[in-house]
Amino acid sequence: MQDTTHNKKSESGSVLIMIAVLIFTLLGFSALGMEGGRWFLVRAELSKSVDAGALAAARNIANPWATPQSIALAYANANFPAGFLGTPGSGSGSAAFTTTVDNATNKVTVTGNVSAMAILARIWGFNAIPVSSQGTAQRRDVEIVLVLDRSGSMSGTPMTDLKQAASIFIDQFAATQGTDKMALYSFATSVKMERAMGINYVTPMKTAINSSNFKADGYTNTEDAIDQTDGPQGFTDQSGTPGDKRIQQFMILFSDGWPTAFRNNFKTKGVTYDACVHLDGDCSNGTPGLGNDLWKPTGNEADRWGIDPRTTGPGVSVGNTACQGRSTPTVRWMIFDTYAVPGYTATATCIPQANLCAQVCNLVTGLCTLKAQELKNKRITIYTIGLGTDQNKALMKSIASSPDLYYDSPSSDQLKSIFQRVAQDIKLRLVL
């Protein structure tokens, strides 16, 4: 008869050994799983710290009071101090950071190394796992154009506050004016280029803003101001430039009222004049009258052509028999080739003043939106700042690159803080 008692004991012993091995294995994998989660957390926090250091250094790459390296290390160590998450508090394996700066590209790279210490995984012979991470940030070159309304409604305190606010804005970029570029335009009935796009702009731009020539006078030619920023003395052409090499471009447009003027060519008696025409009032309540002179586009409110815009056209005067029977008749403008007066053909030579002024109301706002869209299509970011209750908020929002880039300033004493916020937002956008 076979002895089964011995066999059963042997089988029981084998099962116990297998169970013990299985438990040991499961504990090991559990330990590795727990340690893996902790190591992942260490690496995630290390990545945050090197990114923070790189971003802070890139934003302060031209800081005269501290080097990018010292700023990067300060931020990295603050976000991942020695002993954080159970890492060594000192000596081998403790958090260590290095920083390199490429001055040619304004690129900052921060590298962090630390050891994640094991607890349960020690049973498998793992005492520490080296963890490393690298963060890179680059401060892009920038072109900024300030476009400031100096029309007659800005006289007194609003103009004083605007000058102070604009000066504060310019000062925000003083540390980088050796590489960053900025331009300044002002506008009333016509537009004046106060400072062409270039470096070392702080002193000359503040001098222009605070001079006696920068004064409130005239009407509001917003469309020509927007258009001129895209000229040879404004933004440079970035078309065809790869995205990672593009200069970031920003326009800040300030105004306190509705547009009341625009610029175009006007022809009379065979001579074509480059001129600005204006309304005597804005279009917020009905249709205002038409100004009785054409302004020269010099930025000087005293420079005028001495020509009544109602008499311009293909050599036809307001008293021509073709215009008889109409109330205050006018003749054709060249802009009607593109924007015909509703109810009249593009070649109509005699249009009543009421219809003409209504079309001007359409043009002074429509051209603003059109010119702004041309800039946006070139990836130029537009901020708008509107002052007071007489501004056209809907238009200012449509000109801005997005609704959140429109700033409403109910009173002029808030302009300083708004211009400062815009400057800080631009500086944040420069770092990638």
Structural class, from secondary structure content?
alpha/beta
Low-confidence stretches: none
Strand content: 15-25%
Q: Domain count, please report it.
A: 2
User: Assembly state here?
Assistant: single chain
CATH level 4 superfamily of the largest domain: von Willebrand factor, type A domain
Tally of helical runs: 8
The CATH class assignment of the largest domain is Alpha Beta
Residue share in helices? 25-40%
The outline comes out as elongated
Write the H/E string, N to C. Answer: HHEEEEHEEHHEEEEEEHEHEH
The main pleated sheet reads as: 6 strands, mixed
Could you say what the CATH architecture of the largest domain is?
A: 3-Layer(aba) Sandwich
**Secondary structure: number of strands:** 14
Strand arrangement within the widest β-sheet reads 6-5-4-7-13-14
CATH topology of the largest domain: Rossmann fold
Note the gap between the termini.
Answer: 85 Å
Query: How confident is the prediction overall: mean pLDDT?
Result: 85
Radius of gyration over alpha carbons? 34 Å
